[in-house]
Design brief:
With about 220 residues, this protein is of the alpha/beta class. It has 2 domains: about 140 residues, 3-Layer(aba) Sandwich (Rossmann fold), CATH 3.40.50.300; about 70 residues, no CATH class. About 35% of the residues lie in helices and about 25% in strands. It has a 6-stranded mixed β-sheet, sandwiched between helices. Strand 9 and strand 10 form a beta hairpin. Bound molecules: adenosine-5'-triphosphate (ATP) and magnesium ion. Magnesium ion (MG) binds next to helix 1.
């Protein structure tokens, strides 16, 4: 399932073009890093790939089909196949770690299997001791790992992770990137905003750099 943007433009009423004719394509099973200065438009790009905001012009193509920003139904279908790790987490602060991670599974029938998945994910991300705690009582790094767990728990086809290691120490960064990389090896299309070049070199992958509203270069490792 590829992700592609064609001639993508985005401006906000307040100002200049944040995206200015950006184009790129990433293939199914790819592991791609996005870089660019603060304010370059990385989060804005992710929000458009997720169908959360509409481009000013241009197109987003998902698995060879044009994403229809005018259809709530197709946007909803698209979001069900996405795992999103928001830069600011967007967790339910008054709910527990377990509840937050289980949230994307509410509509799924085989509850017992899914509960196993939740517990496995909690183990993998070293969140066992915090499982019953409210999110509001967690450290920043714990919150970040809950956000990743929630994004991966329904095994989505596309994963967009916006600085998922920003609050983590080296050990937990490696766990997080490894989980994302492993998802790409299972055929998921994974894009990660990260400036952690050491980590990028460790796992390999393509780097897209956003500059002046365009995807300037693609470097392969
Ligand atoms: N809803 C909005 N209304 C107006 N301006 C916005 C809006 N969202 C983003 N912007 C502007 O778009 C630009 C790009 O923001 P964006 O959050 O995409 O940057 P970023 O590359 O993710 O930066 P960072 O590395 O700091 O997270 C910024 O100048 C920001 O102020
Ligand atoms: Mg951002």
């Amino acid at each position: 399932m590829s992700l592609e943007v064609k001639h993508l433009y985005k401006s906000f009423p307040s100002g200049k073009n944040i995206l200015n004719g950006a184009k790129f394509k990433v293939e199914k099973g790819s592991f791609t890093f996005i870089q660019g200065e603060s304010g370059a438009g990385k989060t804005t790009l992710f929000r458009m790939l997720a169908g959360l905001i509409k481009p000013s012009a241009g197109q987003v193509w998902v698995g060879g089909q044009r994403l229809r920003f005018d259809s709530e139904y197709s946007l909803m279908k698209h979001r069900q196949r996405l795992g999103l790790v928001f830069q600011d987490f967007k967790l339910l602060n008054h709910r527990s770690v377990l509840e937050n991670i289980s949230l994307p599974l509410l509509n799924v029938s085989e509850k017992s299997k899914l509960q196993d998945r939740v517990h496995k994910m909690i183990d993998e991300l070293n969140l066992k001791d915090a499982a019953e705690q409210k999110v509001s009582t967690l450290s920043g790094g714990q919150m970040q790992r809950v956000a990743l767990a929630r994004a991966l728990i329904h095994d989505p086809d596309y994963i967009l992770a916006d600085e998922p290691t920003g609050n983590l120490d080296a050990k937990h960064s490696e766990i997080v990137i490894e989980l994302l990389h492993e998802a790409s090896q299972r055929g998921k299309t994974v894009m990660v905003v990260s400036h952690d070049n050491e980590m990028i070199h460790m796992f390999g992958g393509e780097i897209l750099t956003l500059k002046e509203g365009q995807v300037e270069n693609q470097v392969y490792y």
